[in-house]
Design goal:
The structure is a homodimer of 321-residue chains. Chain A is mainly α. The first copy, chain A, has 16 helices and two strands. Chain A has a single domain (4-318), classed as Farnesyl Diphosphate Synthase (Orthogonal Bundle), CATH 1.10.600.10. In chain A, β1 (91-92) and β2 (95-96) form a beta hairpin.
């Protein structure tokens, strides 16, 4: 890893990866293969980094913190395994997904295995509040996915968008930060500012993902540009474009209740959005979230870990747009 | 419910059902629908009954015990939802399965939701040992399913059979009993005898299920007679038949490494097994498990709950064969 926030926790991240890999020991060898596939897929480990840095900032270290960081990363990957199956995604970060190689049954079960390992690692924190938060977060994530699956496509609704990205992404960032704070007795205000830091940067992270869906490089993302809109998912760049270009005929088409699939409207709309100010406006919204997050972070006394957390937050909005 | 073991805990079982139903409150309405579908499918609630009776026998009552019993039942149903999807089962106990009505995606996610609710309810026991055991059990169950999915079909191997039914069924019976004992400080020997009781009757339960697959009524089971063998699963009645009829040409066919699918061999073999002594021999093995379980149970002082647990154990082997 070369990102600046990661340097002080590089060894701990390796320990977390070893801990994750060790979960498959004694079980069916293909489960180890699934874990390897996931660990080698080149994620930035941003969620466990968040957990480790918050923990260290609060003077927590050792086995409980490592178990927690591993649990967070595994919960994240478990949801990805089932998501990729549901979306029929064949690639993630340019690497083949589990469902592209295994049957539906094996993919469902390997996701379940990761959930189970995540629950086991969470229980190894020996903290009841952490385990309660962990289970609650899983419920929020799954409920968000079910809601998205059953909702009408092409909903043009800011409130619905922000609820969706909270469930999908920010809830786990919030938990990644907050749960580390729960490992230690803290006053409510201090824990709350850490929770808010996680929440705000998680919201920014998903907004950036939604921007990159329009502006990113197809080959590095492993999916075509504008794939959200093609699937009927109206994200922030599209909402901003609709608000600033209400007269665009393709926007009118959307506003009339149509949901462009693979037709001419969607191709034109994707091009219009990616070369418009809407991307910049959405990016500014992400930056506002980061700023609010850092304001909450600054309620903690200065430390090198606090600085790394600030770097991590800034890294989120500095990803190539 | 009319079974004798259930009478003293009828009210608690209703409370457990209400607690399960309440998990969907505030989430997507279709998740509530999934929970209703499961609760109305007419299970005997034998696992939560086991938890409640063990708890009461040890003088435990109240919220923690109810949460635990609900967690056990939900963990069981979550695995069924994913199992039915993987096996493409359209009916369970004569009722439509979730996968028969919903898409793959919605079925995967509703199973995940049930896992998440089970984890939340387990965390509401406020017991770290319970949560650890719970997560471990989920790993054992999922590992068993993966192993079964990836294993060669028609394995004729007693050891493999007993490992499989432990993972599939007995592990959760063991946890249903043992976890109730973990809610209270007990000496190791007492907890161990309760764990063994759960284990033994769980093994018997699955053997009985495997017998009923040959002898049961197709309409009440909601699947054709001999469906295990048709799927390449060699269960105890078949193992006993092979051992007592090594000269049967269909057995020879199996022993030669063939796996009968929908051919003439499988139909003849199913008929041979169901009308043979193999069923009685397998039933005797189930009764041995029950007897060992009751011997362990009798290490607890006599109480009306101990009697109900004995009734529950005997009920398992008295199901119509």
């Amino acid at each position: 890893m070369t990102v600046s926030f990661a340097a002080p926790i590089e060894k701990d991240i390796h320990r977390v990866e070893s801990l994750i890999r060790s979960q498959a020991a004694g079980y069916h060898p293909d489960l180890g293969h699934a874990l390897d596939l996931i660990l080698n897929s080149g994620g930035k480990r941003i969620r466990p980094s968040l957990t480790l840095l918050v923990g260290r900032m609060l003077g927590i270290s050792g086995r409980h913190l490592l178990s927690l960081a591993a649990a967070i990363e595994l919960l994240h990957t478990a949801t990805l395994v089932h998501d990729d199956l549901i979306d029929h995604s064949l690639l993630r970060r340019g690497m083949p997904t589990i469902n592209s190689q295994w049957s539906t049954g094996a993919t469902v079960l390997s996701g379940d295995f990761l959930f189970a390992c995540a629950a086991k690692l969470a229980s190894e924190t020996d903290s009841i509040p952490v385990m309660k938060l962990f289970a609650k977060t899983l419920i929020v994530i799954v409920n968000g996915e079910i809601t998205q699956l059953f909702s009408t496509h092409c909903q043009i609704n800011r409130e619905e968008y922000f609820q969706r990205i909270y469930a999908k992404t920010a809830s786990l960032f919030e938990t990644a930060a907050w749960s580390a704070a729960l490992l230690k007795p803290l006053d409510d205000q201090q824990a709350e500012s850490i929770r808010r830091f996680g929440y705000e940067i998680g919201m920014a992270f998903q907004i950036m993902d939604d921007i990159l869906d329009f502006t990113g490089d197809q080959s590095s993302m492993g999916k075509p540009v504008g794939s959200d809109l093609r699937q009927g998912l109206v994200t922030l760049p599209c909402l901003c474009y609709i608000e600033t270009n209400p007269q665009d005929p393709d926007v009118q088409y959307l506003l009339a209740g149509n949901c462009p699939g693979a037709d001419i409207h969607v191709e034109r709309l994707i091009d219009s959005i990616r070369f418009s100010d809407a991307v910049k406006i959405a990016h500014q919204e992400a930056q506002h979230y980061i700023k609010r997050g850092i304001d909450h972070l600054h309620k903690q006394p200065y430390s090198s870990e606090r600085q790394s957390l600030e770097d991590l937050a800034n890294y989120i909005v500095q990803r190539q747009v």
